[in-house]
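**Entry details**
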Amino acid sequence: MKCFKSSTLLLTIFVMGLTLGCAQTNAPKKNLSKPTETTSPAIDPVQISRQKAPQPETDITASSTSALIPGEQVWTELLPGEEAYELEFTAEGALLYQGTVLVSDIQVSSDVYAKKLIISPSSPSGNYHFLKACDGLDESALCWTEFLVNKAEGGAQQVGLTKYGVMHWVQWSEDEQYALFSYTGEGAFTFYALNLETGEPSSDADWFCDVDLSSFSWVDNRLFQVQVFDNDDTDWQCNDSPSVFVGDISELFG
């Protein structure tokens, strides 16, 4: 009887040990592996080359250069409330210089006032500017009302230099006695002059088929030279080869 009980006890202990061993074997194991390291994705040089380079900033105050011909200058556009060269185009439509009124109402036609001004670079001393007043804001606007601004005298004199307004190009004589302007229209290219002391426009003009404005230079305070393409007298076509024209600005006043 004792022997049976001992055998039963041993069998019970054996079964319990076997059960405990199986439980430990089937228990989930902890993951002791090292964490996976994260790396940056590889850089594709081809993809970088397709990215746009930074674009340069544009000067929103300057007149658009999209329609400029070679040699033509960038003149400054002023809308009401804006200022350049110490000249202010007020919201009320007046032109001021350092707070002094030069023109109280800039009239373009009998019942239309300026919506925009276009101002040339200054003369060598900074005293003179040429100004065009426009009846609108877009490219179709007529800018045929012209003024000569004299800062030293605190005035802006209206001048009738051309019919539809000069091109964005002016050359000042070194002694600031004259200014030379260009105009293209009606099948010809012309030079006009302005006496800066009197505000008198020239009574005559030099006419050509076409002109290379970028070739212009002063010989002295009166003489200038520029490459021109003259008309062929037979069919009014431009000559293929340019020639050098030497003009006297004072002769344009007759």
